[in-house]
């Protein structure tokens, strides 16, 4: 069975059990402060379990893209070393939201595995939760009894809290679970060791394939468990592991999910997979990591310096590190795997096939830049070794610096050191690393307390499209701590405050009643809730408040948001339909728009785009807002869906003439309210992505006024002559003058050289010159080198004064260096004491700077003693 068939069979099976099949949610999460990536199938359904939202169907099945590289579920270190953990993997899952429970979940899992996929029953073991006295949880007798209907009792094993009580993160939905393990060892090995002894023992061929979680509890911030409103089922089956079992392989990497990638890697690198355990790890790391990187980029997360983007960058660097060290690849290679990955998975995951070229470009650029970094790191390491020729161990600080500033993995430093017969100070490195961890821990201090619920309220309605001022009641609140201090989050029954999302910043304002007035500092979305951030909790929190949005600020934001839509349409008109939005910021101050385009925009293109926008402003186009359009219809209307965004079945469509967008943001009622739009910069944001920044309304008018004022000033400085012509004239004059000065300096130097030669004294067979000059240091150096070529046995000491600071320069002919054992470097260090300074250089030329101008003459007098 091919992997494509395996995926389809799963979905078809659950469809036949009345499940609604849904697409995978994006792999990168937005609006969730507790989690960066989907780490399991249930992530996107969290709100259904918590009762924050009603599912559209009580039975759902899908395959979910998961990434386990940070937080509670982090498998990164194992990936490549073992054969069944990946960074990115697909989790096949079926869900019940308060519908069926343990009986059906167990029966269907059994039916699918043994009757549809036809895995032999004798290969299967299952586990159930044995209970936990500290948490006051009983053994899962129910699950045990349902399993008994299908499988012999000696194959039902008890498991502890670690393996059989599943939790998404430190807080959130959780519950006892029942795992299904499959023993795929050959018969002779099965006879030697009983399979049940190997369950959950990290044996690569006795592995967990499916976990059935019975979601009944909520883990709270104070660590206690609370019963959820309903009993739910959440199952997750590792797709790649299932493929291994069904394709009769012993490693996930031997399945058709990974083999094409590995074959391509063999072709590029010239190494063979399976030939050597060391290179095998590198093959697996690369074949695995390219998936995590490509899917994250497909969902809009570019590699970057912080947050989720940084995690992706680290994964890419881990991969490049392996390729560089182990496969000897000094050129970018991961990007070459993208087309193969696309053939494998692009059919099911359109975000991949639709953007394959862009993804490859981003990866290539990121790889190249890291390879350049590696080069710089190598130079840094080599220069350290050269400057410290006697050293045997490279200090931990250097290894840390390489790691921290150059992103150089420490094992790479270790290998390079070993090649040079050196070792690295592992302990010192660890010390630096833990110092860094401490630093980032205190910087990232973050704590969220549990909600205090005042009124149960399922839906917090947003009324801010129509009202900026309404009466509200606080339904729940909680305290949070982060690096800026302590804050509270308030939730209302309805709100006029727009929560930061889709690039648009959150509203600010205040809530007020007869007792008090509290500032709303920001508004954010957390999962499905709109939370208002305040510094202090209202004293009388049960009372109603008047909630008032900062109107002027909101109007500026709306101007910028509508201008962003016009900009998007103008870019597609001027540059072409390949332009797609890649990110945006819409604030009260300015707007930023990132979009796919391959080259720098020309001045004319920028001007044309700006013209198109302002044309629409002048056309006074009315806002055409439709708040509930079925998703498919919206696409028909010409709106574009962005990959990595989660859209509901019903979407909001914003139209200004030809510009049609799926958008939840706030807008002007008529384009003329934008007043004017001015593009202030066009730059590169990352590979294949350009960035435009622009301003509108009063900000744009102020900007233009300022520009005009500076122009007026320039005019008045130039005595109101035609300014451009005058400046051109000034530039030409300036160049002329520079040339003349250079010529004068040269002539002066020629004269000096003549004087210097005339001042030569012969002392003990040495041609000695000692003097002070007004020439600059560069000219002095030049003259000294000229004279050294012309005069044998020369010993010359020159003092200069620049900006009231003394400098000494000493030149000695090479023959004198040898015959008299003179060393300019050593001499200049001695003489520099006279000018209270220091310096050094080569035996034949050296310089020193100092503080005491008056010591120069004395230093020159003293220099004679070296040849006397
Ligand atoms: P393991 O103990 O093998 O790490 P787990 O207990 O972490 O598994 P769950 O969190 O229960 O796994 O996830 C459900 C299923 O997802 C597992 O049964 C397994 O088949 C699959 N799975 C989990 N982690 C990975 C991974 N890193 N790579 C591939 N598949 C995985
Ligand atoms: Mg695990």
Short description:
With 868 residues, this protein is of the alpha+beta class.
Attribute tags:
binds adenosine-5'-triphosphate; 868 residues; nine-stranded mixed beta sheet; globular; 25 helices; binds magnesium ion; alpha+beta; six-stranded antiparallel beta sheet; 25% strand
Task: Tell me what the structure shows.
This protein has 868 residues and is of the alpha+beta class. Helix content is 39%, strand content 25%. It is built from 25 helices and 38 strands. The strands form 9 sheets. Strands 1, 2, 5, 6, 7, 8, 9, 10 and 11 form a 9-stranded mixed beta sheet that branches. Helix 17 packs across helix 18 (603-618). It is globular, with a radius of gyration of 36 Å. The termini are far apart. It binds adenosine-5'-triphosphate and magnesium ion (MG).
Task: From the alpha carbons, calculate the radius of gyration and give it in angstroms.
Answer: 36 Å
- Round the mean pLDDT to the nearest integer and report it: 93
How many strand segments?
38
Major β-sheet annotation: 9 strands, mixed
Helix content: 25-40%
N- to C-terminal distance: 95 Å
Bound molecules: adenosine-5'-triphosphate, magnesium ion
**Treating each run of at least 4 consecutive H or I residues as one helix, how many helices?**
25
Task: Report the portion of residues in β strands.
Answer: 25-35%
Structural class determined from secondary elements: alpha+beta
- Based on CA inertia axes, which overall geometry fits? globular
């Amino acid at each position: 069975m091919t992997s494509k068939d395996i995926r389809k069979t799963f979905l078809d099976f659950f469809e036949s059990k009345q499940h609604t099949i849904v697409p995978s949610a994006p792999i990168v999460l937005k609006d969730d402060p507790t989690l960066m990536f989907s780490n399991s199938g249930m992530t996107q359904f969290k709100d259904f379990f918590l009762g924050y939202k009603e599912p559209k169907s009580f039975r759902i099945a899908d395959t979910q893209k998961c990434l386990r590289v940070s937080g509670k579920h982090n498998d990164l270190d194992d990936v490549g070393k073992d054969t069944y953990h990946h960074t990115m993997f697909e989790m096949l899952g079926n869900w019940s939201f308060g519908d069926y429970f343990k009986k059906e979940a167990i029966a269907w899992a059994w039916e699918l595995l043994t009757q549809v996929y036809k895995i032999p029953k004798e290969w299967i073991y299952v586990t159930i939760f044995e209970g936990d006295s500290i948490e006051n949880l009983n053994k899962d007798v129910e699950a045990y009894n349902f399993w008994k209907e299908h499988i012999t009792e000696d194959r039902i094993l008890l498991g502890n809290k670690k393996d059989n009580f599943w939790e998404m993160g430190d807080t959130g939905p959780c519950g006892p679970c029942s795992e299904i393990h499959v023993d795929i060892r050959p018969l002779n090995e099965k006879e030697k060791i009983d399979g049940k002894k190997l369950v959950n023992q990290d044996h690569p061929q006795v592995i967990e394939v499916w976990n059935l979680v019975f979601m009944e509890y909520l883990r709270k911030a104070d660590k206690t468990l609370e019963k959820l409103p309903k009993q739910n089922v959440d199952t997750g089956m590792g797709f790649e592991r299932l493929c291994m079992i069904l394709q009769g392989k012993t490693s996930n990497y031997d399945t058709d999910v990974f083999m094409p990638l590995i074959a391509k890697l063999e072709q590029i690198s010239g190494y063979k997979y399976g030939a050597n355990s060391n290179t095998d790890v590198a093959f697996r790391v690369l074949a695995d990591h390219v998936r995590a990187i490509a899917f994250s980029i497909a969902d809009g997360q570019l590699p970057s310096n912080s947050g989720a983007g940084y995690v992706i960058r680290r994964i890419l660097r881990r991969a490049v590190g392996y390729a560089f060290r182990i496969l000897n690849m000094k050129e970018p290679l991961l990007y070459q795997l993208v087309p193969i990955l696309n053939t494998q998975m692009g059919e099911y995951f359109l975000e991949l096939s639709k953007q394959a070229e862009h993804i490859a470009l981003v990866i290539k650029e990121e790889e190249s830049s890291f390879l350049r970094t590696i080069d710089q790191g190598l130079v840094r390491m080599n220069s350290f070794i050269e400057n410290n020729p006697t050293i045997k161990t490279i200090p931990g600080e250097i290894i840390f610096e390489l790691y921290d500033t150059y992103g150089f993995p420490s094992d790479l430093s270790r290998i390079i050191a070993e090649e040079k017969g050196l070792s690295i100070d592992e302990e010192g490195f660890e010390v630096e690393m833990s110092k860094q961890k401490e630093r980032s821990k205190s910087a990232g201090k973050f704590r969220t307390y549990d909600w205090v619920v005042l009124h149960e309220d399922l839906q917090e309605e947003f009324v801010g499209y129509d009202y900026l001022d309404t009466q509200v009641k606080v339904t729940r609140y909680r305290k949070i701590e982060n690096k800026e201090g302590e804050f509270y989050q308030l939730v209302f029954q309805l709100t006029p405050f727009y929560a930061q999302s889709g690039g648009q910043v959150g509203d600010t304002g205040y809530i007020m009643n007869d007792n008090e007035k509290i500032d709303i500092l920001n508004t954010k979305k957390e999962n499905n809730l709109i939370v208002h951030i305040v510094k202090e909790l209202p004293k009388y929190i049960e009372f109603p408040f008047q909630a008032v949005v900062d109107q002027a600020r909101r109007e500026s934001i709306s101007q910028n948001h509508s201008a962003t839509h016009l900009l998007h349409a103008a870019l597609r008109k001027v540059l072409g339909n390949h332009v797609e939005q890649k990110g945006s910021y819409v604030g009260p101050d300015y707007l930023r728009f990132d979009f796919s385009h391959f080259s720098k925009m020309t001045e004319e293109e920028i001007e044309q785009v700006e013209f198109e926008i302002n044309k629409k402003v002048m056309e006074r186009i009315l806002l055409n807002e439709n708040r509930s359009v079925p998703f498919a219809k919206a696409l028909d209307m010409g709106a574009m869906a962005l990959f990595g965004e989660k859209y509901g079945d019903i979407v909001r469509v914003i139209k200004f003439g030809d510009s049609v967008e799926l958008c939840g943001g706030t807008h002007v009622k008529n384009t003329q309210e934008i007043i004017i739009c001015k593009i202030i910069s066009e730059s590169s944001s990352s590979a294949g992505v350009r960035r435009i920044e622009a301003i509108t309304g009063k900000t744009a008018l102020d900007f233009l006024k300022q520009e005009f004022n500076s122009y007026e000033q320039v005019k008045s400085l130039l005595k109101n002559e035609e300014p451009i012509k005058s400046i051109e004239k000034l530039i030409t004059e300036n160049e002329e003058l520079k040339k003349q000065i250079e010529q004068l300096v040269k002539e002066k130097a020629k004269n000096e050289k003549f004087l210097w030669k005339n001042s030569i004294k012969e002392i003990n067979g040495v041609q000695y010159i000692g003097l002070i000059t007004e020439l600059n240091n560069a000219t002095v150096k030049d003259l000294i080198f000229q004279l050294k070529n012309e005069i044998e046995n020369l010993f010359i000491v020159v003092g200069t004064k620049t900006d009231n600071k003394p400098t000494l320069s000493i030149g000695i002919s090479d023959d004198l260096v040898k015959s008299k054992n003179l060393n300019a470097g050593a001499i200049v260090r001695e003489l520099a004491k006279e000018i209270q300074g220091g310096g050094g250089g080569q035996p034949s030329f050296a310089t020193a700077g100092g503080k005491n101008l008056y010591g120069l003459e004395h230093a020159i007098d003293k220099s004679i003693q070296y040849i006397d």
